[in-house]
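Why should sequence recovery work at all? Because a backbone constrains its sequence more than one might expect. Tight turns favour small or flexible residues, buried strands favour hydrophobic ones, and helices have their own preferences. The token representation captures these environments compactly. In the example below, the structure is given first.
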């Protein structure tokens, strides 16, 4: 079937966050805090295990006092910051300023890399006249990431959880995206990496296509099937 619009998740679908080591190293440079190289490596690993890197691995365990904020973390900017800086504080770092610096760093466009075929697929959809929306569980404005990578002109609508006070898989987010694009959900394809969160679009009647949440180097062509699924041209 030919779809009239395609919705995409952000993290792990179109873009990937930098490694925990790069993330911590950037925060250290920003704050002027020195750490030995081996301690940077160990602390980065502990932060990743704690789930402190947004877009990275989920926590192995969420502390009881953070459970409520964590469960609703994508519903507001305040909850998002509280949840992620809270789990980061489970890892001892040499300067308190690092926790806020880490949070600020993950929102920087430089912290994100597009998958190799992101621009190709978004551009192919645009040339085929198929509308594109980004539907993301997130606590901050990701539009500057797309602008910095020259892709903002390929997206017609952004529906971000923190701007609507609810998070995927709530069908209301997908409904909002379909409405902003002026399309019936049955004419819309949702592309994401989470069967739980992104799969919520199926409740509205959207078709859903899943990609693997992998490092950029390990998924060079994961998005290309979307062009064929959407009727935007055959795979090369």
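From this structural description, the recovered sequence reads:
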């Amino acid at each position: 079937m030919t779809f009239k619009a395609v919705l995409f998740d952000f993290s792990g679908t179109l873009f990937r966050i930098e490694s925990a080591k790069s993330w911590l190293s950037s925060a250290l440079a920003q704050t002027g805090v020195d750490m030995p190289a081996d301690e940077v490596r160990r602390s980065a690993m502990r932060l990743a295990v704690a789930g402190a890197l947004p877009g990275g691995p989920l926590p192995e365990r969420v502390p009881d006092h953070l459970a409520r904020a964590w469960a609703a973390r994508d519903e507001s900017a305040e909850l998002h910051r509280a949840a992620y800086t809270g789990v980061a504080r489970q890892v001892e770092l040499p300067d308190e300023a690092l926790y806020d610096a880490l949070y600020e760093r993950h929102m920087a466009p430089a912290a994100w890399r597009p998958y190799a075929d992101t621009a190709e697929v978004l551009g192919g959809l645009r040339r085929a006249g198929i509308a594109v929306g980004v539907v993301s569980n997130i606590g901050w404005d990701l539009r500057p990431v797309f602008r910095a990578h020259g892709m903002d002109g390929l997206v017609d609508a952004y529906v971000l959880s923190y701007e609507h006070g609810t998070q995927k898989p709530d069908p209301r987010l997908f409904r909002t995206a379909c409405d902003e694009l002026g399309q019936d959900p049955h004419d819309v394809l949702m592309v994401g990496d989470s069967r739980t969160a992104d799969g919520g679009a199926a409740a509205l009647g959207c078709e859903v296509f899943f990609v693997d949440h992998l490092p950029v180097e390990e998924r060079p062509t994961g998005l290309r099937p979307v062009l064929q699924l959407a009727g935007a041209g055959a795979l090369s």
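A few observations help interpret the result. Residues 17-110 form one domain.
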